[in-house]
Design brief:
468 residues, five-stranded parallel β-sheet
Length: 468
């Protein structure tokens, strides 16, 4: 006899080892979810649910994409992070929907109930409603995205080495980056160094002087949230690396191997990278609460969801104006601080018996803005520390490297990344230029019963080679 819908959450909670109460469910092991777990000390069962089995250090994904670092340098298994936390159960499943009224999270294969909920599912790449663009312009939000970019770029240059058609070779060695925020600037700068300096020694026939990196930015400056001086410094450093910076320019359409600009100009490029907008996880649409224009949950000053004091949203998935009246930006520091703030609230409430305190009686979140940094290339960067001090060039690059090493999750990651950076800096030789083939998935079917004919399972076809 099948279980009823009301019985399913309890049954699956028991399956995960989460049968006790209070039960805290954390969705997503990004910066917000990870730092909630680290700061949480309450007596409760904790379920940490993520569709990946690792925490990825997103600020360094572009280094993986551009072959500067390997995946283990920027990603740590979630189970390794929580190994010493015996009350934390890790579940690798994708969240499908959340029923705030019933306090149930529906996963891909199951469901689980909660007494407290922390939503830290983050965001995903936004192409502003252009459904065909993701096929041609690769975004950068996950480890898989970074590997896809690396494979496409490296494969394109390998093909260019033996391409007889000079025009096609030019298309294969042209990289168009759309978006002039930190991600776009970092991709463009590092790609220019890779294509114009590192590949100069690796390839024999490619005309390195014809390697073209174009950065298309809709605003009148790159890094538009930074002070004018740093914006100008960022643009100048990009141009010193050979990047063509196109300001006040937007992509009108993106097709296979070409970008049509609003000026009518066409950029022929086999490598189109997207550094544009971000929207919240689509799971927010299942909540039935007020969202902003980017799909983020409009939370109260304590980070809770209006009408549901036991449920919180943190990081990129939350829209919050803090106690000082400033909107909390969708950056790692914001998510880290929100995760710690919510952990303090839940810790206190569990000590007092587990009853949720009215949101207006809780401390309001206050964001401490420690500044912004963006690296552009080897000893090229800009840094805005505590919104007071501005640095450029080598000093900013050293600051950026130190800060990012400190925030890497695992000791192995810190040591390996430091060694890789020193190696690349001294010898100018990034060491992760390996092309990985697309993952081939095989569907496993039950063995045929006696008397049934066996059927052959066909694997999914591999993706087309980069630039095809």
């Amino acid at each position: 006899m099948a279980s009823s819908q009301d019985e399913r959450p309890k049954r699956y909670a028991h399956h995960y080892g989460l049968e006790g109460e209070p039960r805290v469910i954390v969705l997503g092991c990004g910066f917000g979810g990870l730092h909630f777990i680290r700061a949480f000390r309450g007596q409760a069962q904790v379920g940490l649910i993520d569709k990946q089995n690792h925490h990825a250090f997103q600020p360094l994904l572009y280094q993986v994409a551009m072959a500067g670092l390997s995946v283990p340098d920027v990603a740590v298994p979630i189970r390794s992070i929580v190994r010493g936390r015996m009350n934390v159960m890790t579940v690798m499943e994708e969240v499908r929907s959340i029923d705030l009224d019933r306090r149930v999270v529906t996963l891909q294969e199951s469901s689980v109930s909660y007494t407290h909920l922390v939503i830290g599912l983050g965001g995903q790449t936004s192409y502003f409603g252009n459904e065909d663009w993701p096929k041609h312009a690769l975004g950068l939000k996950t480890v898989q995205d970074a590997l896809d970019i690396r494979r496409r770029v490296l494969t394109s240059f390998e093909r260019a080495e033996t391409e007889a058609d000079r025009d096609e070779a030019g298309r294969l060695t042209t990289i168009c980056v759309i978006g002039g925020g930190p991600t776009g600037v970092e991709l463009a700068g590092t790609m220019a160094e890779l294509g114009k300096k590192v590949f100069r020694k690796d390839f024999r026939k490619i005309e390195v002087d014809r390697v073209r990196v174009v950065l298309v930015q809709g605003a009148d400056r790159v890094l538009p949230t930074y002070p004018d001086r740093l914006c100008e410094a960022g643009k100048r450093q990009l141009e010193e690396l050979g990047v063509e910076v196109m300001l006040n320019t937007r992509a009108e359409s993106i097709e296979d191997g070409r970008v049509v600009l609003d000026s009518g100009e066409v950029i022929e490029a086999r490598n189109i990278l997207w550094g544009g907008g971000v929207v919240a996880s689509p799971v927010t649409r299942s909540l039935g609460v007020e969202l902003d224009g980017r799909g983020r949950i409009k939370v109260l000053p304590d980070c809770s969801i209006p009408g549901y004091p036991e449920a919180f949203a943190i990081g990129d998935i939350a829209y919050l104006v803090d106690a000082k009246g400033q909107e909390v930006p969708g950056v790692a520091q914001g998510a880290i601080q929100m995760g710690g703030h919510v952990a303090k609230i839940v810790n206190a409430e569990l000590r007092d018996g587990g009853t949720a305190t009215p949101p207006d009686e809780r401390p309001a979140f206050s964001y401490w803005d420690k500044g912004d940094m963006a690296t552009i290339g080897r000893h090229k960067a800009v840094a805005w520390a505590f919104k007071k001090f501005q640095f450029t060039g080598f000093v900013a690059w050293i600051m950026w490297a130190v800060v990012h090493l400190l925030f890497l999750a695992g000791f192995r990651s810190k040591v390996a990344t430091m060694v890789q950076w020193i190696w690349a800096y001294v010898l100018f030789r990034p060491g992760a230029r390996i092309i990985f083939s697309p993952l081939k998935r095989e569907v496993l079917e039950p063995a045929p019963q006696k008397g049934e004919a066996a059927t052959e399972t066909q694997p999914e076809p591999a993706a087309e080679p980069a630039g095809a």
